[in-house]
Specification:
binds nicotinamide-adenine-dinucleotide; 15 helices; 22% strand; 488 residues; Aldehyde Dehydrogenase, Chain A, domain 1; alpha/beta; Aldehyde Dehydrogenase, Chain A, domain 2; seven-stranded mixed sheet
Length: 488
């Protein structure tokens, strides 16, 4: 499998440019250095913003929605043409399975561009008629226009999927972009810049800068006065920092932030389906998905049986190399993140949790011992106030707790600073409808998890985010509306 380029550069104004300072890209599989990445300083970020601004008054600013849809389709085909290179890049940076990279990450990258190409073509306008006092029939219509320059700051957990989820609609609406991917996962973003370059997008429409957050590219970009709107996916705390930066100049923000999501399993659920569903929702991507369930509530009559079945399933998960057959779980993204997760393992012990399984680091006796692996971990026995039940761990971990009544479980699910999503496992459709309305979250799944029509709104409440993206909601965020009123 090909490896990402040894030196990843920025992409500014249609050119790949290096900067003097670089940082190492480390494999979470075995700790080896994969290559080096240029780190943008303030001057480099300034150049990227200037290039984006220039594109707005240049060729990109004059494109029609149809032309932009064509560009998006060309980018989708470009990713498909280099599909295996994208897979290799995602796998190298994250250590996830090749199978996941193929079926989820890169496939969704393609789909994001195709979806927004179609949506921008179909995006209709608004038109109103009214009779003025002088008897004239006055009409108003609404024009959709880009914000101008949009900053995209994205995380490491689903690098290509989450970056393209924002790049595609932002370009569809005619914005110029400066993307800043996570310092942990720079490779697929660099490939995307190559594909966009090959697709012939006008210079400055898409720019890429690499670097870190505080006092680095992320901060320089989000504090830049010439950035018109900021879209961010990442930790809630980082969102709050960016929001303070965006307050200067009253710039628009869209935030997809952390979660401490609940799965609720009722006694009437299809037992095996619910066990398989919670295994997926707790341990997919080693628990590093904002939508993962770290809190599991199980109706008391089936609690013991459910915990035993979940334990049996978790212990069967195969932890391994990305290209091994049947591998279910890869490493965490980095040693630093592993330290954080192991800190929660220790905290759970201190808080009095019962360890059902996991709780440590697997020993391989090979190069993977230099990586960032942890065992899938299940706890029971903690109170609702325990930090391990309230704070996002972002690892392969869940706490399972019994409940007795619908009202009780609604209260406990809602007793969270976060509010991204919830999953209900029940055969009782009436209960599913009623509870879905009462849960303080942006998305509810019933007898499934993660499945999404890309036209539906995506986002959370509370610390989980601000605004919604997805389908026309993305088009709304990435555009300004101007009302034109005509008295003929
Ligand atoms: P993070 O907040 O540490 O970093 C995200 C991005 O922000 C990175 O590119 C980083 O360099 C940049 N950044 C960090 N500090 C910054 C600053 N002060 N100014 C500007 N940019 C800054 O998040 P992470 O650790 O990369 O990602 C994991 C988090 O993302 C988890 O909390 C997870 O729940 C959340 N997440 C949410 C969603 C969602 O859709 N709600 C999706 C995926 C991940």
């Amino acid at each position: 499998m090909p490896h990402p380029a040894p030196l990843l550069r920025h992409y500014i104004g249609g050119e790949f440019v290096a900067s003097e300072k670089t940082f190492a890209n480390i494999s979470p599989v075995d700790g080896r250095v994969l290559g080096h990445v240029c780190e943008a300083d303030r001057g480099t970020v300034n150049r990227a913003v200037a290039a984006a601004r220039a594109a707005q008054v240049g060729a990109w600013g004059r494109t029609s929605a149809n032309e932009r849809a064509e560009f998006l389709l060309r980018i989708a085909s470009g990713i498909e043409r280099r599909f295996e290179e994208f897979v290799a890049a995602e796998v190298a940076d994250t250590g996830r399975s090749v199978k996941q990279a193929r079926t989820l990450d890169v496939a969704r990258g393609v789909q994001n561009f195709r979806t927004f190409a179609e949506l921008i073509r179909q995006a209709g306008g608004e038109f109103y008629e009214m009779r003025a006092a002088d008897g004239n029939d006055v009409f108003s219509y609404v024009v959709r226009k880009p914000h101008g320059v949009v900053a995209i700051v994205s995380p490491w957990n689903l690098p290509l999927l989450l970056l393209t989820w924002k790049v595609a609609p932002a370009l569809a609406c005619g914005n110029s972009i400066i993307a800043k991917p996570s310092e942990e996962t720079p490779s697929s973003a660099s490939l995307l810049a190559e594909v966009i370059d090959e697709a012939g997008l006008p210079a400055g429409a898409f720019n890429l800068v690499h670097g870190f957050g505080p006092d680095s590219a992320g901060e320089f970009l989000t504090r830049h006065a010439a950035v018109d709107a900021i879209t961010f996916t990442g930790e809630s705390r980082t969102g709050a920092t960016i929001m303070r930066a965006a307050a200067e100049g009253v710039r628009e923000v869209s935030f997809e932030l952390g979660g401490k999501n609940a799965a609720v399993v009722f006694a009437d659920a299809d037992f095996d389906q619910a066990v398989a569903g919670v295994l997926r929702s707790s341990f997919t991507n080693s628990g590093q998905v904002c939508l993962c369930s770290e809190r599991v509530y199980v109706e008391r009559p089936i609690f013991e049986r459910f915990v035993a079945a979940l334990k049996a399933g978790a212990e069967k998960l195969k932890i391994g190399y990305p290209d091994e057959d049947g591998v279910d779980m890869g490493p965490l993204i980095s040693r630093a993140h592993r330290d954080k997760v192991l800190g929660y393992f220790a905290l759970a012990r201190d808080e009095g949790a019962t360890l059902v399984c996991g709780g440590g680091v697997p020993a391989f006796g090979d190069a993977r011992d230099g990586g960032a692996y942890v065992q899938p971990t299940i706890w029971t026995g903690l109170g609702d106030d325990a930090r391990c039940v309230r704070e996002e761990v972002f690892g392969p971990v869940c706490h399972v707790s019994p409940f007795d009544a619908d009202d009780e479980v609604v209260r406990r699910v809602n007793d969270s600073d976060y509010g991204l999503c919830a999953a209900l496992w029940t055969r009782d459709l009436k209960r599913a409808h009623t509870l879905s309305r009462r849960l303080r979250v942006g998305m509810v799944w019933v007898n499934t998890w993660f499945l999404r029509d890309l036209r539906t709104p995506f986002g959370g409440v509370g610390l989980s985010g601000l605004g919604r993206e997805g389908g026309r909601h993305s088009l709304d965020f990435y555009s300004e509306l101007t009302t034109v009123c005509i008295n003929p």
